[in-house]
Amino acid sequence: MIGRWWVFALFLTLGACGWVPPAGPPEVDGRWVEALFVHRPLQVPAYLSGVTLQGGRVVADDDVDPWYPSCRIELADLAQVVRPIPPGRYEVTGIYREEWIVQRAPVRVAVFGTGWVAEGSITAVRYTTEFRLRAAGPADPVRMRCMHWADPEPFGQYPGLAEVSEALGELVSLELSDVPARGGQGRQPAGL
Fold this sequence. Notes:
The chain is mainly β. It has one domain. The C terminus is likely disordered.
């Protein structure tokens, strides 16, 4: 009897820890993503872990329009002081994608004079493409999360190269491999 409780307690403990799936190969829109290039210094505000870019400029988290692509470059932890992200090349080690339902509202539509009534819900999904970065030091960024809200059908998709470039503008860019990733012709990055 004690053996069953032990297994049950272990199951609850492991379940509470959560599981984060491993990052996939760094491929977007059929291209290998080699690195993230920061072209100009970025400042991470005090008490925050990252800086958000939208429309090619730095924006406060409260000013992000979720319906348009935005990217947040994050450090490993919070600090009480403003911290710089220096210009440089940061290697992309993997990509993780997720989606969350972020808005659901009941809707009732009636066409007067016809007796026709339809019920349903309006749903928005936040699509995220996370670029995991190899941090060489404690001040280096560890990830860049690019996201936007979209209707799940027919437009729902993860941010691709065009959406990421739109968010980053000229402040930051992605280095892409010359070799296509699909069809077994691209190189498989080491360590994945």
